[in-house]
Design goal:
The complex is a heterodimer of chains A (203) and B (563). By secondary structure, chain A is mostly helical. Chain A contains seven helices and one strand. The longest helix of chain A is centred in the middle third of the chain and has 28 residues, at 119-146. The mean pLDDT of chain B is 97. In chain B, strands 1, 2, 7, 8, 9, 10, 19 and 20 form an eight-stranded mixed beta sheet that branches. The radius of gyration of chain B is 23 Å and the shape is globular. The longest helix of chain B has 20 residues, at 456-475. Chain B is 23% helix and 20% strand. In chain B, helix 2 runs parallel beside helix 7 (242-252). Classes of the chains: A mainly alpha (203), B alpha/beta (563). Strand 1 (189-193) of chain A pairs antiparallel with strand 12 of chain B.
Chain lengths: 203, 563
């Protein structure tokens, strides 16, 4: 299968094309202004503190269990690199504004900075945001289908989640320790017996 | 003395799939050959710098940066812009072109050209393909028939190494194959259901691909290791490329001279003998101009660049360049139109998975306007696709985040299947490329302007390409089937063809039945430019066969003193 078809299928499956990716719809605009410049620091447009925040968001989405978690794969730093270098100014604006909104929501619900929340509180908060994101995206998809404006934006939590998945499962830790990866398979077997619990191939 | 150093029996312009074959065939037949490549050298294995890199070894995990996207406004339109193959596509700032209408031109300016980057699907045109123009009253008739090229398909398949099955289908003639790669368990069942559902008139077969499944020790090539990293250059030499196959064969003869950084600016035409006497080369590094002379010239610079060279040649005799007396030079641009098909979900098979990464998928040969079938458009299309289990990219609606979500994503999901069409594009006089002398490249050379669009026949065909894919999967019991008919810019198929077509009449074609330019019979064009019609199958194997055939003819003619 050609890569272009694969990308189409991914876009169709997630409901929102991968932001920062080449399949992202052209010409999207947003009211969110570029606030990226306000936070400068260590990793591209992100400060060291931002990277720690990204790490904790990612870890809440993909926590360490019996297998490695997002922080083991240094997801925060890689997320910062991807956003800084691969996202358009508009997309960066969405992401940064999303982080601001996350902190506001944390203050609103818990009177605490996200970094000060317990693991359980972080989990609760992001579960809520995930539900809201799904609702938001479904509405956007329906509206776009009825009358395409080309101006819709994904919920900010969708951005957090999809980037977390991407940097985690393309990391060495994620691909080789959490998933399975064979650098040189040597042969192809089109009917490998599978039992529930066997890990998926990273690629 | 300088003249002696600059004279060869043959000059081959371009080192991609067809140029590599020309160099191999001509040197093996004893000719002293100069192979000119406009880009840098890439040495087999040694220069495949990313061949053993993994996703996590790239700074941006193989994604293009904003800066790269700005530098490559064309490449970014589709999948080729990434970190792993960066540097393997032509620099767009140095090599601009004009888009009168959108045209996606994905070029490989380096030793081996796009033979290092190709999709490796290798199919023969069929008997009807060579008769189609004559029968349909479209464009001009091919000057050859299937029987003329069949032995040359045999010949190139044996050397290149094509894995596949002999499926016994008229629409897709069988060739000389290495053992086929397997369909997976779901694809096999879908294939069986399709046979039944369509009474044997539609087929799903494993792709025939130029990846070897048995070693070729005589060529120093190891069989495919199922890494699916072909595009990075294969350290095992498992897929056919100039570097893995034709170049080493040509070098072995001791008759080959290779010159990279050599932009051929024109064929030097001798008015008195009505022959070419050589080529003019602009050294892309030193900006110096050098002349090389030879008895024969093979233009294999890729369809459009071979055409560009012709347009820049003998302009004192013909304003439009060598071959323009036909009014066919630069005309009849064809590609395979794509980005249309369907995908869906397959229930069950949850106790089955696969291992290894195949360098191919399945193929559905053309079934429209074939046999008794008759549609409201001419010609047809094939599909390429695959079935697989979903991976971590899938959305799990019922799960949110956290440990359970992560656990679910570490297991494969349900089976899905998808396929996309490759449709035949008719040759049309109005679909053309031409020189725009107002725009210059880095070296001050005029550039090509593209004026190509899909016409009514292709637009009608695309409806079938989507609907038939849906019908096909639904007939096979695939669930939740969704069709798509996406954006297609001509060129996206990376199968440019037709701009110096073969024909029977010098008034309407640039080349004769032996790929000789009618107006300069010692000049041969055997890349995609020579195609009189496009068929719907991937074209590279045909370029190989036509090149070997033309090289044979050229050497025989030289021996007889006819060139």
């Amino acid at each position: 299968m050609e890569r272009r078809d694969l990308l189409k299928m991914i876009a169709a499956a997630t409901g929102f094309a991968f932001v920062g990716g080449e399949v992202w719809a052209n010409g999207l605009t947003t009211a969110v202004t570029k606030t990226a410049k306000a936070v400068t620091g260590q990793q591209g447009i992100f400060s060291a503190a931002d990277v720690l925040l990204l790490d904790e968001i990612a870890e809440t989405i993909l926590p360490k269990t019996t297998t490695a978690g997002a922080k083991d794969a240094a997801c925060g730093a890689q997320m910062a690199v991807q956003i800084s270098d691969c996202y358009s100014a508009t997309e960066q604006g969405w992401f940064i504004a999303g982080l601001v909104q996350l902190q506001q929501r944390s203050q609103q619900d818990y009177k605490l900075d996200f970094m000060k929340l317990s693991n359980e509180q972080r989990h609760q908060l992001l579960v809520k945001l995930d539900t809201e994101a799904k609702t938001h995206n479904a509405q956007v998809a329906a509206t776009e289908q009825a009358a395409p404006s080309g101006e819709s934006t994904p919920h900010y939590f969708t951005l957090f989640k999809q980037l977390t998945l991407f940097v985690f499962f393309t990391s060495k830790v994620g691909a080789t320790e959490v998933l399975r990866y064979s650098a040189i398979p040597g042969k192809y077997d089109g009917n490998l017996p599978y039992k529930k619990g066997d890990r998926a191939w990273a690629t | 003395m300088a003249i002696a150093q600059n004279h060869y029996d043959a000059i081959v312009v371009g080192s991609g799939i067809s140029g590599g074959w020309a160099a191999k065939e001509l040197t093996e037949k004893g000719l002293k050959v100069l192979l000119l490549e406009r880009g840098r050298n890439i040495e087999h294995v040694k220069d495949y710098t990313n061949a053993f890199k993994e996703a996590w070894d790239y700074p941006h995990r193989d994604r293009p940066t904003v800066e790269r996207k700005q530098e490559y406004p064309v490449l970014k339109r589709d999948y080729p812009l990434n970190e792993s193959t960066f540097g393997m596509w032509a620099n767009e700032k140095e090599n601009p072109y004009v888009e009168k209408k959108r045209f996606d031109w994905f070029r490989g300016y380096h030793m081996g050209g796009r033979s290092l980057l190709w999709g490796r699907q290798s199919y023969r045109l069929n008997e009807a393909d060579f008769e189609a123009n004559a029968k349909d009253g479209v464009a001009v008739d091919w000057p050859i028939r299937y029987a003329d090229i069949a032995p040359w398909y045999d010949y190139v398949e044996r050397f290149a190494g094509i894995s596949g099955n002999r499926d016994g289908l008229d629409v897709l003639p069988d060739g000389q194959y290495l053992p086929a790669i397997d369909l997976n368990v779901v694809e096999k069942d879908v294939a069986a259901r399709i046979q039944k559902a369509f009474g044997g008139s539609r087929h799903l077969i494993i792709g025939r691909t130029a990846n070897i499944t048995l070693p070729k020790p005589e060529q120093g090539r190891v069989n495919c290791q199922y890494r699916s990293k072909c595009w990075l250059g294969c350290p095992f030499g498992a897929y056919f490329s100039t570097q893995s196959a034709t170049l080493p064969a040509a070098v072995k003869t001791g008759n080959l001279t290779v010159r990279p950084y050599s932009i051929v600016t024109q064929v030097l035409y001798d008015k008195d003998t009505k022959r070419a006497r050589g080529v003019e080369v602009l050294d892309s590094e030193t900006n110096q101009t050098v002349e090389f002379t030879s008895k024969i010239i093979f233009l294999n610079a890729s369809s459009f660049n071979s055409t560009w060279i012709l347009m820049n040649s003998a302009t004192d005799v013909w304003e439009g360049g060598l071959g323009s007396s036909s009014n066919a030079l630069g005309r009849n641009v064809m590609d395979h139109h794509l980005n249309v098909g369907a995908f869906g979900e397959v229930d069950g098979y949850l106790d089955s998975y696969y291992s290894g990464r195949r360098p191919t998928g399945f193929y559905v040969p053309r079934f429209r306007n074939w046999g008794g079938d008759k549609r409201d458009y001419l010609r047809g299309f094939g599909y390429q696709g695959a079935a697989s289990r979903q991976n971590w990219r899938r959305d799990i609606a019922e799960l949110s985040i956290g440990a359970d979500f992560k656990a679910a994503l570490t297991e494969p999901g349900n089976w899905t299947i998808g396929m996309g069409g490759f449709g035949e594009m008719l040759p049309n006089h109005d679909n053309r490329i031409y020189l725009d002398r107002t725009v210059k490249d880095k070296w001050g050379l005029p550039v090509l302007a593209m004026d190509v669009e899909l016409k009514e026949n292709e637009i009608r065909m695309r409806k079938d390409m989507m609907n038939d894919a849906i019908e096909f999967f639904e007939a096979a019991g695939v669930k939740n089937v969704k069709g798509y008919n996406g954006e297609y810019g001509p060129g996206m198929g990376i199968h440019e063809m037709g701009t110096a077509r073969m024909g029977r009449d010098p008034k309407t074609s640039v080349l004769n039945a032996n790929n000789q330019v009618w107006d300069a019979p010692n000049v041969f064009v055997t890349d995609g430019a020579c195609m009189t019609s496009a068929s719907c199958v991937n074209p590279s194997l045909t370029y190989m066969a036509l090149t070997a055939r033309a090289a044979h003819f050229a050497v025989e003619a030289l021996k007889k003193g006819e060139l």
